[in-house]
Design goal:
mainly alpha; 208 residues; 0% strand
Length: 208
């Protein structure tokens, strides 16, 4: 949830600073709307491409870190204003890559049934609360640099990357323990309990 929180902050941030960037580029309201289309179309294509490769490789961590890295590149770009416009592409693409992969990664590792339902609700519901943060750190009098807003976004993206890394190594360690038979003692449980273990079952392997 913390990684999703960090990504969602950047997603909400785009909405906060996008009008300022487009206004500095001299676009009118109608022109600004047109120039946002390209931003989201690029993000859409990248998100679908990454989703396909992630599913094909059955791997999530590297693609999460790719999204974090792209987003952080966009967050550190300040001037000139044309470069900040490119930063909008990077931030939007980064979060469009990161957020879906995080949701799928979470669901892959929660077994089946009620665990997935509760886990998804907790992750998305809690993570979306980052919008409350982003709406309060982009202070209009500090436009167009928004040091508090972009600084907060950069820090939260670092947090997201750290969370993904800790999760990756933790899951890999647990998979190795199960490969070595450390969790095989659970096989002695009654059959009805064994069938309901979900991701705690010794034969379950976490997606990395």
């Amino acid at each position: 949830m913390l990684a999703y929180f960090g990504a969602d902050h950047s997603a909400s941030a785009v909405v906060s600073f996008q009008p300022t960037i487009l206004r500095e580029l001299g676009y009118t309201a109608s022109q600004a709307q047109i120039h946002t289309i390209a931003v989201f179309m690029v993000a859409l294509v990248l998100a679908i491409t990454v989703a396909w490769f992630s599913d094909w490789l059955q791997h999530r961590y590297a693609f999460c870190m790719l999204g974090v890295t792209i987003c952080m590149v966009g967050l550190v770009i300040e001037y000139p204003v044309g470069a900040r416009y490119f930063g909008m592409f990077a931030i939007t693409a980064g979060v469009y890559i990161l957020m879906p992969v995080l949701v799928v990664w979470n669901l892959n590792n929660l077994g089946t049934g009620y665990r997935r339902v509760i886990g998804a609700a907790f992750q998305i519901g809690g993570g979306n609360s980052a919008a409350l943060v982003s709406q309060n750190v982009f202070i209009s009098k500090h436009a167009p640099r928004y040091p508090e807003g972009f600084g907060t976004g950069f820090a939260l993206n670092i947090m997201a990357g750290i969370c993904c890394t800790v999760l990756f190594f933790g899951l890999r360690l647990e998979n190795r323990r199960r490969d070595s038979g450390i969790r095989d003692d659970r096989c002695t449980l009654p059959q009805d309990e064994l069938d309901n273990l979900g991701d705690d079952h010794p034969s379950f392997r976490y997606t990395l």
